[in-house]
Amino acid sequence: MTLKLYHAEPAANSLKALLYFTERGLEFESVYVDLHKFEQHEPWFVAINPEGQVPVLDHDGEIITQSSVIGEYLEDTFPEAPPLRPADPLGKARMRYWNKFIDEHVMNYVSMWGWHRMVGVIARSIESGEFERLVERIPLHEQREKWRTARSGFSQSDLDNATRKINVAVDKVEAQLAGTTWIAGEVYTLADINFFSMCGMSLERMFPEIGNPDRCPRLLDWVARMHQREGVKAALAMPDHTNPALRTFTGEAR
Amino acid sequence: MTLKLYHAEPAANSLKALLYFTERGLEFESVYVDLHKFEQHEPWFVAINPEGQVPVLDHDGEIITQSSVIGEYLEDTFPEAPPLRPADPLGKARMRYWNKFIDEHVMNYVSMWGWHRMVGVIARSIESGEFERLVERIPLHEQREKWRTARSGFSQSDLDNATRKINVAVDKVEAQLAGTTWIAGEVYTLADINFFSMCGMSLERMFPEIGNPDRCPRLLDWVARMHQREGVKAALAMPDHTNPALRTFTGEAR
């Protein structure tokens, strides 16, 4: 039996998928996909995931995409490993409510700021004929548009809306942590992994005006508790090939 | 033990939740929430769901929101009733991939056209002071914006983008049904209920230029098979209080 994970740097969706393994002690084969070389749009990769996105799980030849779907799949497939999903139906529902919220109302908005600050620099560094050639082979319309917008610049109103969404999310998590130890209740779950990977790990660095102890002390305490976990340490220790000057998620750049 | 479902007309998210019960033969108490009277924003309802949206499940006092979350919750809670979720992990992953796709890339776009054609008529019929008073008490920013936009009119570029998304979804389902009987595989699942409620049931009426036998014969065959199911018939037979002239989902209006 082989579990093969195609992933990029330990941040965002790739970190989320890596944590499923490091937190549960599941062995896997790591296949690094170099987003800086646009490998996720190469024919060999699109043959594996027609959407041209990481992470992708290959379990004995069966391909599973979408990081939230991969998390539940690994829970269903390996129930004997330490679980990241509550045992009771209500706990599962609370976790799924949060995962849905993070997937739909957090991920794309933090991502927009990351693209604005990092991918825009990359996109503008490419000569325009080459840029269009690279964009044309991206399978998903939304991703093609995102690359073009990263090059031309996101509108201020879109960036403002993204900031508003991040403020709403931070308030919501801060309020939740007033009542529970972890995001979906008293048990550490896939929802903690999701929010940490998509927002929590980068909040203080990317959005210091939001991610500061006056504004969200409980959330920052939770971030500190996340960093103390051995599984989190192991995933974050995986190689990061991003140019350090461009590390909006994992490094210094803003 | 009581299962109480707060819902509106048998269409979209409310139909989706009603089908979980009618398809599985689960008994429940139906609580009709009149969206035409904005009951979902009344204090008594916001006390139940702070987001001010239907459907809501009350299971012995525990509140579960979000129709996709409710579906999995009922699977976890009543495994002895006829299941709408595959037994094997891979089948569950396929179903969740589709549910995520429908939740994120279909629902809001069909909804925009429904709002453009129906809710816009309602919103413009309200005197402006009264309109602002009604909008101010809507809990979610996105819903307040949607009401205001429905009144002022959605932009042509947003409507064009919604049409493009619906075309992508129809192509994707049509391609899937070339290989499998139901949307997520050989088993009827929550994904069929999701796509039917959000798009399939209204496709021919709302988008005849897309939902026609030349364009998507397999999808229309699947719609016909959905309509033959006793559980679907039972849910669609529930009362519809919409002004018939405004029934974009369930009636004639376009």
Spell out the key features of this protein.
homodimer; 4 strands; globular; 4-stranded mixed sheet; alpha+beta; 254 residues
Describe the protein.
Two copies of one chain form a homodimer. By secondary structure, chain A is of the alpha+beta class. The first copy, chain A, has eleven helices and four strands, in the order βαβαββααααααααα. Chain A has helices at residues 12-24, 43-46, 67-77, 89-105, 107-124, 128-136, 141-152, 156-177, 190-206, 217-228, 230-236; strands at residues 3-7, 29-32, 56-59, 62-65. The first copy, chain A, has a four-stranded mixed beta sheet with strand order 2-1-3-4, with helices on one face. In chain A, a hairpin with a 2-residue loop joins strand 3 (56-59) and strand 4 (62-65). In chain A, helix 5 (107-124) packs across helix 9. The longest helix of chain A has 22 residues, at 156-177. The first copy, chain A, is globular, with a radius of gyration of 18 Å.
**Which structural class matches the secondary elements of chain A?**
alpha+beta
Mean pLDDT, all residues of chain A:
94
**Sequence of secondary-structure elements of chain A:** EHEHEEHHHHHHHHH
User: Greatest contact pair?
Assistant: A-B, 23 and 23 residues
- By oligomeric state, this entry counts as homodimer
Total strands of chain A: 4
Spatial strand order of the main sheet of chain A: 2-1-3-4
- Helix share bin of chain A: 55-70%
Outline the biggest β-sheet of chain A. Answer: 4 strands, mixed
Our measurement of the CA-to-CA distance between the termini of chain A, rounded to an integer number of angstroms, reads 42 Å
